[in-house]
Specification:
Length: 131
Amino acid sequence: MDFPEELKYSKEHLWVRVEGTRAVIGITDYAQMELGKITGVELPELGDELDQEDSFGSIEARKTVAELYAPLTGLVLEVNEELSVSPELLNEDPFDSGWIAIIDISDYEELNLLMSAEDYADSVSAFDELD
């Protein structure tokens, strides 16, 4: 599994890449592996105001539907429309072409509530040990 160091991670298995006042959001490598083959994505709408930890979309896989929970509060500036036609990008390239949304960050303090790559890797390892 891949845990890029430059990213922050939520306990709901989303990654965040901060780019100035914006945050690019996607699912982690661990999440896409756990979900299996992804067959559909419900994206947020442009202009939606996300509140941290509120549902903002979903991912459909062969066996399940997983809710997406906002890792940060902010206004949706862009969504990856390519996922509507090619949801498999979330499996193939979760950190680049498989990004989900870009938001304008409303509260930078919330970044402190997210995990580092090392902390996220530890949490995933502990989670796997429970299985």
